[in-house]
Design goal:
heterodimer; A: 1058 residues; alpha+beta; Helix Hairpins; six-stranded mixed barrel; 22 helices; 20 strands; rod-shaped; B: 233 residues; alpha/beta; Rossmann fold; four-stranded antiparallel sheet; 6 helices; globular
């Protein structure tokens, strides 16, 4: 450009800074919004990819029905393209604490060397707190624990018996100490998977050292592929790359499975044969052992009976001796009695002898006396008397001597007797002694015999016991052998049944977290399809209008330049540079802000549902190029087109005032009655509107686009908000669900106290089972809802159509009611047949009788009668739905829940309001996205309105100056201009509402998650808000414009027409 | 006391660092019902004079009286009112609203006045009885200027200000327009002030005010103005 042109260019810039900023702003908004929103999903993907790469998330994950042996591992290591391999274990366990139980999945990890870096190079967990396990018995836990049983660093837990013995046997330690909290790239979403123990779903994962596993085979193998890291995890190239490798693993799997199968079966056969041999040997050994034992026992038996006989003989002898002794005793006693009798007679004899002696002695005395008397008598003279006396005395003496002789005879006799007696006594005494000895001997012998007897008896009982033992052992041994035989038989049967092992080769797509992340990213991408394009279109439109206007304004200048001899190129350069500068600067600003704001805000919203590192914002060159180029092309082409159109005219024509656009009658004038009724100013307004058709459409489209964007944004928010209120307030009439500790088949089985609480207004037993439901074209995982009876169901759940809210019939026999989203996914309608897969994999057909309004999850309502008929068993109700009294406060509800849990019938109680809240928390993440949309739309609408009004005013500067000269007050001037503006805005708004409804429907359709149905209605408030916001911005623009209008110099009116 | 009085009116424009003294002490008077021609070369200050007299701009110092009211002391709003009720403008480029028919353009002015003339009557008077429902683009330049004059007259103003009313017209049409203005002045007793650089027009004026370098170089009363038809240039 030549110097004057340069000056002109910069002065132009300075003087029309408002317009420049408008183009700049609109380009910035359009480009920023488009590129920012478009770049969001690539950024999200990139962040995910980097996270996976940095933490070595597996590319391939192998599972086998029979685990992996070391040989398998070695073979896998040999697969072409495997850069790293990690064989690993996992086990699902249960822990308990304070009556609550949690199901954990244990994964093995290599021990960490320093506690700060994870061992190995695959599936590296990210440390959030504490450290990594450095020795056996330590573990790190999931950072995401929604469960009531939470583990923190320092906690110790012990595996519950409920885990199952097999699993417990596979672990060396059953008590672990939590040393850290981690995130794992394997678990980026909030889902932790399913299991066969506990309540069936895993609450959180725990990583324990590999050394704590004690399993014969690895349960899983993770592999990284060479060259996969360089690829974007979410790209098709990556999928293709991994798919190709997957085939290699599958081939290897087939090969290894054969080997493994043979190994296992051979091993088993060998084992069976060995066992059989063992059994036979055992039988032999048992038999011989038994025989030996029996003979020993028999010998002992013999011994015992011999002893018994001997004892008997001894006893006989003893008895004889005793008899002998007895007779001896008797004799002795007889002798003793005789002796005693003799003793008495001897004593009597003695007494007689003594008496005799005494008689003799007294006779002698008397004799002596007589002699003396005779002597005396002689002396005295009495000789005769003396003689007589002496004669008598002599006689007496004779007699006495006779007597004395007799006495002596007797005495001798007595003495002899006495001697005899004493001898006899002596003999007797000896006999007594002998007898005593004899008795002693006998009692001793008897004692010995008694002892022997006792010995024999204990011998007997011992022997009996021995026999008993023998018999038991015999039976036991036999039993054992029989058991072993049965086992062998079982093993043989087992062996016959052993199926070939199978490998499953899974990739990241099979990881729930990765898959759902990918889906969510795609969802963002899909929202980013419509909104930004629409947004960009509006922006481009405004750009185009603005630049066209600018060129038109400078018509005379263009003509002058041309007349002065400047080339077309030189002249158009100014405008092209102007447009380009605004476009480039706008693009730079838009990209800078947009690339930062949109990914960050949306990511932050989504990370509520994912455990991921902060987003990595990349400068997305393709979108930057596309959006900037589009913006530049829009501005430049429109500028060029406008300039070119002007340049085509001759300089003279250009310098002459452009023939003003002819006024003409508008269609309304033909409607006489209407036209006549309008005030003059209104007529003017109408005519103006119709006159500038281009501006009319631009404004209507611009304003309409913004209103539509806002409405779609607000509507999307409504649709999401609807889910919670409609589902939990309108569709569910009950407010509490209690889970029964034992399922019941009917009211009879239910403890009376379970539902007798006065706060429970009504209750219904129900069963909710997860089943896969098939149509001809699709499959959906659904909850089968079986109510206690269909009548109650109607009271508890508002089964109705979404459109028209017509109540749905719930038939007992002939059909089922399914939820709307499910019907949509299955592509079925009322009267169609769907098939529900039972646990035994049989698919039973059911006819759809109605499609009900439902927003969260999918439900299939089926009557208990039909359920029994189709599923072959009466439903086992495991939950109780309860309606509560009105007017309960939060505290009341808490108290109620507590009292319910104290009842042993229930294991858990949940309020639908809480479930709703939890769900709405998750959905608020989308709110952020929507807020971004609304804010951007609002901004856009302001810029658009400002720009269009600005054009409107500049275009009519002369007219406005003229009416000012005519004496219109500022207010009237503003009204003159704004009336049109307002009408245009109104028309644009109405058009926007119509477009918005469609845009909303489209966005809802694309953004919807499968298990959720968004509301389809836009609330009145959203319409009002969109309208009001548009109006507010229009008013704001008018306020800003008012100053400009006021400042329009009336001198303009005196200038020549440009 | 004259109908219009200018006493020592000055006006200075500040454009960047430069002060342009558009008017430096202008004083003159105009009597009611006079046909006045203000004449002078380009840049002499004619338009500034007109702007200030027409209430489109305020003067820096001095006094302007119209019908005894001091216009120079008016606020912006009072100036608007002044324009609304007291002044009628005829522009060089007519300044018709293209989207309005001839009648509607007149109505645009009459709508906002308290005592407007009937637009139809005025249009009849300016000789456009047959073109009332035509849009400006359907009218010739002279016709358009007639509409502009009708629009100014319909307000029944105290003062009719015309800025080079013939500047964009050919000779004959220009003459016809001047005749219309002169007739209006004579017939309706309206004070008409025409600004022009064409000194030939001075012959038809009751009073000629010559402007030069922001001052009045002379004020000449013409006791015997010529009818337009007899003027040639």
């Amino acid at each position: 450009m030549r110097k004057p042109l340069f000056k002109d260019f910069f002065r132009e810039l300075r003087h029309t800074l408002g317009r420049f900023m408008a183009i700049f702003g609109i380009v910035a908004l359009g480009v920023g919004f488009f590129a920012g929103l478009k770049a969001t999903s690539p950024d999200m993907n990139h962040t995910g990819d980097v996270y996976f790469d940095n933490n070595g998330l597996y590319d391939v994950y192998l599972l086998s029905t029979m685990g992996f042996t070391q040989e398998d591992i070695d073979a896998i290591r040999g697969v072409d393209g495997v850069s790293s391999l990690m064989p690993a274990y996992n086990a699902d366990v249960i822990i308990e604490k304070d009556e609550s139980e949690a199901v954990l999945r244990l994964h093995s990890i290599p021990l960490s060397e320093d506690g700060q870096t994870a061992g190995g190079e695959i599936n590296l967990p990210v440390l959030k707190e504490g450290r990594f396990p450095q020795k056996s018995g330590e573990c790190v836990v999931d950072s995401y624990q929604l469960h009531s049983l939470q583990l923190e660093v320092g906690d110790t837990f012990t595996l519950s018996e409920k885990t199952g013995q097999d699993t417990l046997d596979g672990l060396k330690t059953h008590t672990y100490t939590v040393v850290g909290v981690v995130d794992s790239p394997m678990y980026i979403s909030l889902t932790r998977g399913n299991t066969s123990i506990g309540n069936g779903s895993i609450d959180y994962f725990v990583l324990i050292p590999e050394v704590d596993f004690d399993m014969p085979v690895y349960t899983e193998v993770y592999a990284l592929l060479e060259g996969a890291k360089e690829l974007d995890s979410f790209s098709d190239e990556y999928d293709q790359f991994v798919d190709e490798k997957t085939t290699l693993f599958e081939d290897l799997g087939a090969e290894r499975c054969d080997i493994r199968y043979r190994e296992i079966t051979d091993e088993a056969r060998q084992q069976i044969a060995d066992t059989q041999q063992e059994i036979e040997d055992g039988q032999k050994e048992l038999d011989s052992q038994l025989a030996e034992a029996e003979s020993t026992l028999n010998a002992k038996e013999k011994e015992l009976s011999d002893g018994q006989q001997q004892l008997e003989a001894a006893r006989d002898t003893l008895a004889e001796k005793q008899a002998e002794l007895n007779s001896g005793q008797q004799q002795y006693e007889a002798g003793l009695a005789e002796l005693e009798a003799n003793r008495t007679s001897m004593a009597e004899q003695k007494q007689l002898l003594d008496e005799m002696k005494a008689g003799i002695d007294s006779g002698r005395a008397d004799y002596q006396e007589g002699l003396k008397q005779a002597d005396q008598l002689e002396q005295m003279g009495q000789v005769e008397a003396a003689e007589k006396l002496r004669a008598q005395l002599a006689l007496m003496d004779q007699k006495l001597t006779e007597m004395e002789q007799q006495y002596s005879g007797y005495m001798a006799e007595y003495e002899a007797g006495l001697q005899q007696f004493e001898a006899a006594e002596q003999t007797l005494q000896q006999t007594a002694e002998q007898l005593k000895n004899g008795w002693n001997e006998i009692s001793a012998a008897s004692a010995v015999l008694d002892e022997t007897q006792a010995e024999l008896e204990s011998g007997r009982s011992q022997l009996d016991a021995a026999w008993e033992e023998y018999r038991t052992q015999k039976a036991e041994g036999q039993q054992k052998l029989d058991d072993a035989r049965a086992e062998v038989e079982d093993a043989e049967a087992e062996l016959a049944k052993v199926s070939r092992p199978e490998w499953y080769v899974l990739d990241r797509d099979m990881n729930v977290g990765v898959a759902s992340f990918q889906q969510d990213v795609e969802r963002v991408d899909r929202v980013a399809v419509v909104f930004p394009v629409f947004f960009f279109l509006v922006a481009a439109l405004v750009c185009l209008t603005t630049m066209t206007r600018m060129v038109e304004e400078q018509r005379v200048q263009i003509g002058t330049m041309k007349a002065l001899g400047y080339s077309k190129a030189a002249i158009s350069m100014k405008y092209l540079y102007y447009a380009a500068l605004a476009g480039v600067l706008g693009s730079i600003a838009g990209l800078t802000v947009g690339y930062f704001i949109f990914p960050t805000v949306i990511w932050n919203a989504y990370t509520m549902m994912y455990t991921m590192p902060p987003i990595i914002i990349e400068f997305n060159i393709p979108y930057a190029v596309i959006s900037s180029a589009a913006a530049l092309i829009c501005t430049l082409v429109s500028t060029f087109a406008a300039v070119y159109a002007e340049l085509a005219s001759t300089p003279a024509a250009l310098m002459r005032p452009k023939a003003p656009k002819a006024g003409k009658r508008v269609i309304f004038e033909r409607i006489g009655p209407l036209w006549r009724r309008l005030s003059f100013t209104k007529k003017v307004t109408l005519r103006n509107l119709m006159r500038y058709k281009k501006r009319f459409f631009m404004t209507v489209l611009g304003v309409g686009g913004c209103t539509a964007l806002m409405l779609a944004g607000f509507g999307l928010k409504d649709s999401i908000g609807d889910i919670i209120t409609k589902q939990y307030d309108e569709i569910y009439n009950y407010s509490v669900i209690g889970t029964l500790s034992e399922p019941v088949t009917g009211r009879d089985g239910l403890d009376a106290s379970a539902v007798s609480d006065s706060r429970i207004e009504n209750s219904m037993l129900s069963l909710q089972e997860a089943h896969d439901v098939y149509s001809d074209t699709a499959m959906v995982s659904t909850y089968l809802f079986v109510p206690e009876n269909t009548e109650l169901l109607g009271q508890f759940i508002n089964l109705r159509t979404r459109v028209g809210h017509e109540a749905l019939e719930m038939p007992d026999e002939n059909g089922v009611v399914i939820s709307e989203k499910m019907a949509k996914l299955l592509n079925v309608g009322v009267g169609d047949t769907i098939r529900v897969e039972r646990d035994d994999r049989v698919r039973v057909p059911l006819t759809i009788n109605g499609i009900c309004e439902n927003y969260v999850y999918h439900y299939l309502y089926i009557s208990p009668e039909l359920y029994e008929q189709q599923f072959g068993a009466a439903p086992e109700f495991s939950t109780v739905n309860m309606m509560l009294q009105d007017g309960m406060t939060d505290e009341d509800e808490d108290a109620f829940a507590e009292s319910l849990l104290e009842n042993s019938s229930y294991t858990s109680v949940s309020f639908t309001s809480d479930t709703g809240k939890a769900f709405s928390d998750v959905l608020t993440s989308l709110d952020a996205v929507i807020l971004v949309l609304i804010v951007c739309s609002a901004l856009l609408s302001y810029v658009v309105l400002y720009n269009l009004t600005n054009i409107n005013v500049t275009e009519r500067l002369r007219e406005i100056a003229t009416i000012k000269v005519l004496g219109f007050y500022d207010r009237e001037v503003a009204a003159y201009v704004y009336r049109e503006n307002l009408l245009l805005t109104l028309i644009g708004t109405v058009a926007g509402l119509v477009i918005g409804v469609f845009l909303h429907a489209f966005v809802v359709d694309t953004a919807e998650v499968d298990i959720v149905m968004f509301g389809r209605d836009i609330k009145l408030l959203s319409f009002v808000l969109s309208v009001v916001l548009t109006m507010v911005f229009a008013a704001l623009v008018d306020v800003v414009m008012y100053r400009k209008l006021k400042n329009i110099s009336m001198v303009e009116s005196l200038k020549s027409v440009e | 006391m004259s109908y219009v009085e200018f006493h020592d009116v000055t006006k200075c424009y500040h454009v960047g660092q430069v002060d342009i003294h558009a008017l430096s002490g202008v004083s003159f008077t105009v009597e009611k019902g006079e046909f006045v021609v203000i004449v002078g070369p380009s840049g002499a200050g004619k338009t500034t004079l007109l702007n200030i007299l027409g209430g489109m701009d305020a003067c820096d110092s001095g006094t302007i009286l119209l019908d005894g009211k001091e216009v120079s002391g008016y606020s912006q709003k009072e100036l608007t009112t002044y324009r609304r009720y007291d002044v009628g403008f005829v522009f060089q480029f007519y300044n018709l609203v293209n989207n309005l028919t001839a009648r509607e353009n007149v109505e645009l002015a009459s709508e906002i006045c308290t005592h407007p003339l009937n637009p139809d009557v005025v249009l009849d008077e300016v000789g456009l009885a047959d073109r009332k429902d035509n849009f400006p683009s359907q009218l010739s330049g002279g016709e358009q200027q007639r509409v502009a004059i009708a629009r100014a007259l319909a307000k029944n103003p105290k003062l009719l200000l015309c800025d080079e009313p013939t500047g964009a017209l050919d000779y004959n049409t220009g003459k016809a327009i001047l005749k219309l203005l002169q007739d209006t002045c004579r017939n309706m007793n309206t004070t008409v002030i025409v600004i022009t650089h064409n000194s030939a027009l001075t012959a038809m004026a009751d009073r000629v005010i010559k402007v030069k370098n922001g001052t009045i170089s002379s004020v000449t009363l013409n006791p015997d103005p010529l009818p337009v038809e007899r003027i040639e240039w």
